[in-house]
Amino acid sequence: MAARASGSGTISFGLVNIPVKLYSANDSSAKISFNQLHAEKKIRLKQQMIDPETGEAVPREKIVKGYEYAKDQYLVIDEEELDKLELTTSRSMDITEFVPLEMVDPLYFESGNYLAPEKGAERAYALLVRGLEDMKHAAIAKYVARGKMHLLLIRPMKNALVMQYLRYADEVKPLSEIPIPEGATITDAELGLARQFIGSLAKETFDITQYKDEYRERLKDLLDRKVKGEAVDLTPAPAPQAKVVDLMEALKASLARSGAMPAATSALSDDASSERKPPRQSPKSDEVADAAGTKKKRKKG
Questions:
Q1: Which structural domain range is residue 115 located in?
Q2: pLDDT of 145 above 90
Q3: What whole-number distance in Å separates Cα of residue 152 and Cα of residue 64?
């Protein structure tokens, strides 16, 4: 079934305007959701807004929006005022700059939309796609919708454009607030094993279609069987007991589990052992060891 547009807009930069349609990139059709039911009657419950003073339900037509400017002091805002305020700002996706795509950390990404050209805008749309692909850049734009000034990233994807909503800087916790310890020492042998493990699972491309929501599939199977009245065994699998504390042993175990045990692993293991063991002492110049290991004085001339 063909996708339906969820909105429209105009990409603007310089004197160029490209009218586009917005299509949600999210597909919730496979999502499993639950309803809240009365525990005894098994009927669906309804949520209501309750007056805390009287305990009575407040009908929708008597609910308004309010801004709390002081403790328990509210300024009522009319929905019509908000609509008019949105109309006084630009409704276009105004591009402010072009940046290398890898310079925008995915941590700032929110939901996304596909953008398709309106009729008559195909050439301008294709030109922007081709230009972004050739330059390996993305466009940063501002867009007002649903009562908010959105920050956007517009990037090319297989001859099309994707509009990614971005979080603002003050909406992302800075990394400096996270306690990351410093001073951890890593040996060359440990790094070598880590590189081997990464290499054993490394792929040239990323194919997301190979991943499935296994929990959702098991949940769907559980619900289907319960609807049919079948018994379901939910005995949890035993948790692994063995814990490898030594970092080198953990890396070796990871390599073994991945099925990749390169010949260099043993060499790296020997290198790691040599780092922990003191060098072997050679016999003194005036001593020599016999076959049994007994030291004897070296005979002179």
A1: 7-26+64-171
A2: no
A3: 30
